[in-house]
Amino acid sequence: MANALQEQLLKAGLASKQKVRDVKTQKRRDKKARVDDGSAALKQEVAEQKRLQAEKDKALNEQRFAEATARGQVRGLISEFSKFAIKVPNHAEIKFNYTLENKIYSLYIDEKIQAELLQGHLGIIRYEDKSYLVPHKLAERVHLLVPQWCGYLWQQDESKAVVTEDDPYADYAIPDDLMW
Q1: Could you read off the pLDDT tens digit of each residue along the chain, which spans 180 residues?
Q2: Are 138 and 80 in contact (CB under 8 A)?
Q3: 131 in helix, strand or coil?
């Protein structure tokens, strides 16, 4: 089915096979005449297309250069968070869940590390199917350069930090065992 409209017109009897052939032939001739035409308008259009393509290529090259520079920074980050990663003790029993790119990952930690994570002193970086516990400042830098690696980064939201005076539950303590 090359052209559904042509087939519908043929079936309805509004066009003939000869008319369809004539239209195709005319389109082909017009296209060939446009290409072979030595007019100034066509030359100007071709020059404009070349200029646009050159701008597009320049932007692409700049993007590639920026990515290469970022890769150099990323390599430094990889070595840095591998160096400063906090070792999880073998006796860790608390399962800490975090999400990254719509997937839930788990990491077994102890109470001290859990408290530091929840207070915002540590962050979790996931790189090459391995999770790293790193200091918060390093996790922030990773989040700025490569956000898809940052699994858990505690950030206080100013809009939620404001306590309203009308809050009826302000006197109630939030239990610490609410973990998902």
Answers
A1: 467 888 888 888 888 888 888 988 998 888 777 665 567 777 888 889 999 999 998 888 778 767 767 777 777 888 888 888 888 888 888 898 988 888 899 889 988 888 888 888 899 998 888 888 999 888 888 888 777 888 887 776 544 545 556 778 777 777 766 655
A2: yes
A3: strand
Tally of CB atoms within 10 A around 77: 21
How far apart (Å, rounded) are the C-alpha atoms in residues 39 and 43?
A: 7
- Structure tokens given for 128: 């090459």
Q: How many other C-beta atoms are found inside a 10 Å radius of the C-beta of residue 96?
A: 21
Picking from 106, 111, 115, the residue whose alpha carbon sits closest to that of residue 92 is: 111
Q: Using DSSP bridges, classify how beta strands 130-135 and 150-153 pair: parallel, antiparallel or unpaired.
A: unpaired
Q: What do you get for the CA distance between the two ends of the chain, in Å?
A: 55
User: By C-alpha distance, which of 170, 169, 125 is closest to 147?
Assistant: 125
> What secondary structure letter does DSSP report for 147?
G
Which amino acid makes up residue 164?
T
Please, what is the Cα angle at 89 between 84 and 94, to 5 degrees?
Answer: 110
